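User: Structure with uridine-5'-diphosphate-xylopyranose, tokens only please.
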Amino acid sequence: MEKQKSRGRRLLLVPCPFQGHINPMFQLGTILHSKGFSIAIAHTLFNFPNPSDHPDFDFLPIADGISKEESTEDFITFILSLNVNCRIPFQESLCGMIENQDLLDEIPCIIYDSLMYFAGDVAHHLKLPNIILQTCCVTNLVLYKIYPRLQEEGYLPVKDFTFLPMYNEQVSSQDVVELIKGFNINCKAPLQELLAPRASKDSISLDLVPGFHPLRFRDLPIFNYKNSDALLQVLADFCSLIRYPSAIIWNTIEFLEHSSLEKYQQRHQIPFFTLGPLNKFAPASSSSLLEEDISCISWLDKQRPNSVLYVSLGSLASMDKKQLNEMAWGLANSKQPFLWVIRPGSVSGSEWIELLPDGFVEVVCERGCIVKWAPQKVVLAHDAVGGFWSHCGWNSTVESISEGVPMICWPYFLDQRVHARYLSHVWRLGIAYENELESGEVKETVRRLMVSEEGQEMRQRAMEFKEKVELCIKPGGCSYNSLNELAKYISTLKK
Ligand code: UDX
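Assistant:
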């Protein structure tokens, strides 16, 4: 690794090798580089961006020992493997760096993605300053704290929310235990409730997580997660290491998560830097693993303002053939223009769009544009885009909020359900789509967002959020100030 000459403090960034984690880490690197720091990226061999696209950064490969089988494991099991496999190679690389004559005068500061917690462990062991970058929302982290308790009390793994109408927002978890005991003694009334048709979707408000209004048990990242044991293991590892970092950087926006930030801060007496949205501080940087198809921008240029629905499920979510079919006809019948990202391999059983229903492409050729991967930040900032059908990954969520685009929230897994619930019920910037995809409902939901008065109001509110975001990143704004404080703080860390 070449040392970047004549720059400030050396920062070694350790991104988690998935697009939704690589992006915020590279954005942070770009921002800190502009503040005069020298940036090196310690990356796994699995999934890393092309170093030649980032001439300002140095790159340090870490042997990840990931086998072919492990690379197809579920996300969380894969994270566990990475943390086991990378620890020793990372430690050896760091020791090599420290022994290097050039670096004797200054040890690096490690900034690692919270999912790459092996890096924090190694840094702690070698007595190096280290900072966590949290690429998810704060509320998720606050929620993680309640899992061990829920597990101890026998509520996890939660497999079926139909048991949960017993809960009530006002009921403490102790009371819930009593209620569940009561349920076992006399299950007639709750059973009747379960079997009775519900008056409206909102009447399912009884399954709220105590103390976390308006989250329901089904919104918890752990709900129905196929490998909840692995998830609990990652959380336990992660939470046990949280005492190590010198500080935490959040890719969130103060006004969005004020109360969660306060709760978290009360528990962890270390400096916090709230820098979100990182994408607005580093608008030009791209760390896409897939090639962005920029032809969709000239297609957008031909569309009317606010008329296009942008559809994208991020880098991990996938669909089956039936869902693809329902989505396709729902979009076609909505009569709205759409820009649809279908990642290669994201439809099970096909390479790309071979499974789109016969006749679909011809029907919508005027009104639709399908790409393998879009320059999402540019798309969301485009005047023609008036709505975003999203899986609600945290990056997509903050990118959409920072461009004033309201959403249709169709979460896929883990933290995305929390974001979807906040978007639809707290910030009121999105419509929750909670049922199986069905073309009639897809069409109605798209029209609700794109052409109804309700959608118009949401778009108006989204624009107000965008303005607030802009204030945060301007001189004097909270994210702007936090960034300057972070730069000062890093410079004062032990050298
Ligand atoms: C994952 C998790 O799913 C998410 O919940 C977690 O918070 C972060 O890691 P992912 O599913 O890929 O991320 O979603 P998201 O967080 O939205 O990140 C996707 C990134 O890819 C965004 O920065 C988005 O701008 C970018 N993208 C997506 C593109 O550049 N082009 C596309 O066509 C689609």
